[in-house]
Amino acid sequence: MHAEIVNVDGLTMMAKSDTNHWVVMDTAREGQSAAAATPMETFLFGFGGCFCMTVKSLLLKKRLDVGKVSMRIDAQRAPEPPTVFTKIDATLRFSGGSLRDSDVEWAVALAREKYCQVGVMLEKAVPIDVKWEILE
Description:
- The chain is an alpha+beta fold.
- Helix content is 32%, strand content 33%.
- It contains 3 helices and 6 strands, in the order βββαββααβ.
- Helix 1 (39-61) crosses helix 2 (101-115).
- The radius of gyration is 17 Å and the shape is globular.
- The model has no long low-confidence stretch (mean pLDDT 96).
């Protein structure tokens, strides 16, 4: 994998990788808000996206009616630099399908252990708690 990061203006950066899709990142400066997601926010987006896609893909391989999948992530950070993540709580939400709790438990376990590369890597550095809700 290859990534290229380009400084656009001030601290605003654009990044692209092998897929040739651009992502904008920024950070707040004194008296100004960020014009885009920060790198740490982008990191959480990557984890959430990877986890949701992995779980949904595993459930679809079992030919289950999955419906929509979403995830809410709450991350705590260290108060002093380096302000790394110290705990991540994630809640998957399933709606519009017909899933059993045991199916989701199976998929989440596989995603955590093997198939969500971002999560597997991140969990080596920070505790991650994943829960789920199956909405009617």
